[in-house]
Design brief:
With 397 residues, the chain is α/β, with parallel strands linked by helices. It has 2 domains: 91 residues, no CATH class; 275 residues, Rossmann fold (3-Layer(aba) Sandwich). The chain contains 17 helices and 11 strands.
Length: 397
Amino acid sequence: MNVSSLIGKLISKIVIKRFQIPGLSIKTPDNKIFHLSENPEKDLGTISINDWSFFWDVAMGFDLGMAKAYLKGKWDHPDLPNLFKNIASEYQKTNFEYAKKIAPVKLYSIIAQSIKSSNTKKWAKKNVSAHYDISNEFFKIFLDPSMTYSCAVFDTDKTSLEKAQETKIKNILSYSEIKKHDSILDIGCGWGSLSMQASKDFDANVTGVTLSNNQYKYASNKIKTEEMTDKVSIKYDDYRNIKGKYDRIFSIEMLEAVGHTGVSDFFSHCSSLLKDDGTLQIQIITIPDEKYDSYKSNCDFIQKYVFPGGLLLSLDNIENASKKYGFKITNKVEIGTHYAKTLSHWREKLEKNFPDFSHRTLNIYDYRKFYYYFSYCEGGFLSKNISTYQITLKKNS
């Protein structure tokens, strides 16, 4: 037994006492089961601890330590989304601020997050590349054929992921009031699905922008293959370097990357790029207004392991920042429940397809990271701890 496992075993009962989640049980490596809090209405299953060092990781990093332990295979649970849904609900009732002060890994991560979320062009590029430049082939195993990596909109429970993404894109184009031959800027264009569809449906001239080299190459090749280079172009650049005037601007789940100080920069630059009476159509994951200040000073699993430098904004942030630069919100549609379903599809596809992919460039650590990520976020949407909105903003003439 190594030192961290030995210490973990010694402090295990102390750590277990902190896990007061009604209906949850913990099974330690010696096969003892601890029922954390009796609740006849809930059965959240059992967290099976595979290594005593799990408890050391949690003591050192709190929720980040728990995540680290999962990525390294130190614990498992039969239904992670439901577990996270209930943990999120309990977290809302409890003050965990003390963890920032006593868990050193947590404290260090908060400091690192404040630097990465500074929204400088240097950090913006690093942060985007860290996630999106993993491998296009890897993203293909869980995304739909269009490679659309954002919340879909499902007409029914039986709607396929592919159809739901088509519906989402159709809705975005409709909300934006796009017209034939419009000029469009797609900020954070991903692998190009929205840019290409806008051009196909409305004969629009579209410029997509991404800081991911992999996305840039993929989208550019697809545009060339489909003989659309006269209508759609992709730039590998920071959106703040873009000049010109556009009828419509799209930003689909990109604002999560700009940071607290970057939201004003975003609306300022969009205002300078948008023609009078033009529309800015965004889709954004949000956190409730009343939780924003506490969240902003934290660092969670997503920020440390998945989207470095990422920060969810609140609706107040968006409305206040946009008003300063002449924008008015004309339409707002909440689709948070659809994101839980989208994530469920991604998680199931990942689980099904990863075994055939794992011999290539990624390993079980990467698989567990994305499985945890999808489950973690699905739980957040199910608990309504976070949500997603499609928002139309009009620039006043």
